[in-house]
Amino acid sequence: MPLSQTTRRGFLTTLTAALSSSVLGSDVPPTPLGVPLRQEPLAFAFEELEPFLNARTLRRHYEEHHANYLRELRETLAAADMTVGNVTSLMPGMSHMAHPPRADSKLPLGRLLSSGLSFQEPQKLSKESLKAIRMAGGGHINHTVFWRFLCPPESGPSGPQGRAARAIVEDFGSVKTFRRVFKEAALAHPGSGWAWLTYRPDGCLVVSTTPNEDNPLMKDHIPWHLAGRPILALDLWEHSYCEQYGEDREQYIDAWWKVVNWEFVGHAYEIVTAKV
Length: 276
Ligand SMILES: [Fe+2]
Known about the structure:
Blueprint (H helix, E strand, L loop, with lengths): L4 H20 L30 H25 L18 E2 L9 H6 L8 E2 L2 H22 L13 H11 L2 H14 L4 E7 L5 E7 L17 E7 L6 H4 L3 H9 L4 H11 L4
Antiparallel strand pairs: 1-2, 3-4, 3-5
Bound molecules: fe (ii) ion.
The site of fe (ii) ion (FE2) has 7 residues, from helix 2.
Keywords: Metal-binding, Oxidoreductase
GO molecular function: metal ion binding; superoxide dismutase activity
Pfam family, one: Sod_Fe_C
């Protein structure tokens, strides 16, 4: 039996709080957004985003496409003997990423020094590893973020609220203009990729798109004026909509607006603007 609106809202609020607590930490001010090396459980059932995003596409998207990225990332990190708590830490300097000598890689520095082992210059990761981390690491992060910004239709606010709304109005003129700019950017993006609303280090909000599984955290691969921390993400890969909408990306975008979790957008905005 479907949850009533009131119950569902309460359910989502509880889930959002749990998600925030488990992933983001319960400290005040909030700790920065992180992405663990695992798939977070979704805060909704696959069927709950219908009719806007169908359950079959969502299930395949989550259980196959996203899961495959995570598996590939885990295999790549394991092969490089790397232990990662927060996957976003891999993004900013990935073109010159290095790992410790394998024999010492799991020893904290204090134990390393006391063990008598000599410190060696970090070894740069192979091109193949860097390529895999860019694609699979980006894929895992992007999808994790994408799920966080979804919720069942009419289960929350229908647009941005509070400080996030004021920032959007300040930088785009109005929420309506922001929606138009975002949609036009997503429609104009050639092929697979992502559309983003990003909080830049200078405090501006910018709309952008990225190819493949790149994202605004990848400073080495993103123009400086588009790099920052995303507060909204839209998957533009065909696997996210073609089964339901065919080649009609515009119809998909219009449907996606109906299931955007604006409450979480506001939460993300608080986190990226927190002085921590
Ligand atoms: Fe996807």
